[in-house]
Amino acid sequence: MAVYTEVSDEELEAFIGEYEIGQLVSFKGIAEGVENSNYLIQTNIDTYILTLYEKRVDPKNLPFFLGYMDHLASQNIACPTPISGRDGEALRSLCGRPAAIISFLKGMWPRRIHPEHCAELGEAMARLHLAGEAFPLSLPNVLSVAGWRSLFEQCRDQADSVIDGLEDILESEISHLEAAWPEGLPTGIIHADLFPDNVFFLGNKLSGLIDFYFACNDFFAYDLAICLNAWCFEADGSFNVTKAKLMLSRYRKVRPFTDDELSALPLLARGAATRFLLTRLYDWLNTPPDAMVKRKDPREYLHKLRFHQQVGGPGAYGLS
Amino acid sequence: MAVYTEVSDEELEAFIGEYEIGQLVSFKGIAEGVENSNYLIQTNIDTYILTLYEKRVDPKNLPFFLGYMDHLASQNIACPTPISGRDGEALRSLCGRPAAIISFLKGMWPRRIHPEHCAELGEAMARLHLAGEAFPLSLPNVLSVAGWRSLFEQCRDQADSVIDGLEDILESEISHLEAAWPEGLPTGIIHADLFPDNVFFLGNKLSGLIDFYFACNDFFAYDLAICLNAWCFEADGSFNVTKAKLMLSRYRKVRPFTDDELSALPLLARGAATRFLLTRLYDWLNTPPDAMVKRKDPREYLHKLRFHQQVGGPGAYGLS
Question: In B, which residues are within 8 Å of A12 by CB distance?
Fold first, then answer.
């Protein structure tokens, strides 16, 4: 639930006046996302999203994110597009924060995942990966294997207060991942946060992807590993191999895997589970009780990690 | 920030299917209001608000609230109108809660109050009061003087933990209000919660009133007393008599006051300040730390109460 910054009338009016988007007729905070403040804006011309970037987003990376969204739109990927002001600039400032107006994307994120959603996601992800290849900027993934130990060090002392034995589990898992992490897999810009609430559908058809503020350069297969975690487990904790198989097989119709990518998938999936286990643990320990954000339970990702630890090979994800 | 109930795709689709409002193209939780879950719905035809009534609203009063909104719209008061399903019913059920779709009202609530906002509010409130006269249902105000003592009893033991000396202040104030509360003032349906976030403007022109879920039968002048508290104090605590005068004088051009109403205003304003002091105190003590609602500071209303206690007569509000 995210509206961290209240925008005053005068500031809003002056800000909107810098664009050619018509007269404001409605302005409502959106109760979605946890990183930034998002407002739905209606004018007499169209509907838009106003985002104020809060402290989790490093302002120096915003030209990368907005440029990437612009690039994707030019490659016919359905996603929100930054709107430029009269001076040609999309990245502006409002209430002392970096801010941008982006186009409104139709669709709803699925509250309940059906296999067909996963198939659609696989295809869209492959198209996203290919479309990013011509984008000239790059940004390293600070939340990949090289960043996990320092995140762990910041919360290891309190880890067992959240889940008994978690410190040892993470110590041993991170050591394993650091030693075994693959090199040389196909790399490009990945979304890195393709959770269901960032993927919009109209009926069973994917209508677009949103929220590119974790996008970075990393292995393409790591994006798949994140989605195996985020889309293919049921609420009861069971792994739905049909969903995984549909996602992966629709992906590789558009962008075929190398053998190395395929065999690395179980390890990458362990890495992705560890990444979200770590950030959830960190947030669990560091979210003040009066924050207007619901903390997400780290246990969910420990359970997913344990699943991937016992996987024998990519066949467990429905691939032969 | 209010979205307490997550609506699943299947439930939403089935619910929308009961109306003739077109195909759903967007569905977003709104981060406003604290009582109910509100979603902005866009279809290929229009924009709507979906409200799920949470536990603070007594379901047995919903026919009153929705009927009143319908009645107001028929009297050309700008306000959201309940939309009926194919079966003619506006009050339905979704996710186990009473739910309704209401029309979308253009405009934005003012983050900073200008005197002209207060003038517009005065006129709209008077028109609202007159428009309610032909509405056949009635509902007593459970949050007026007769209800304050029981609210106080539920939190008096902890009152001093919030503000030193508050228990004594409230005990003495409630006793005074109970003894001095007027009788026989002009009565009808009042909004009873006309805070700035429930009054929409386009530019400086009032575009409509929303959120009628505290509406009830009470003294018309009590609605004015609530608004003196909610609209006429500056952020630094000072009382802006220009705003009060504009609100009251524009009101009485549409619905003239009786002398009794005028002289009762200071006492009614004390009562209104006490009502919000009590409910804020109650919420302060009873909001769980992980609730996704920002608690409002009771101190603000103690300060306002103290202002009205020292008022000599209605002249303090700019009236002669």
Answer: 108
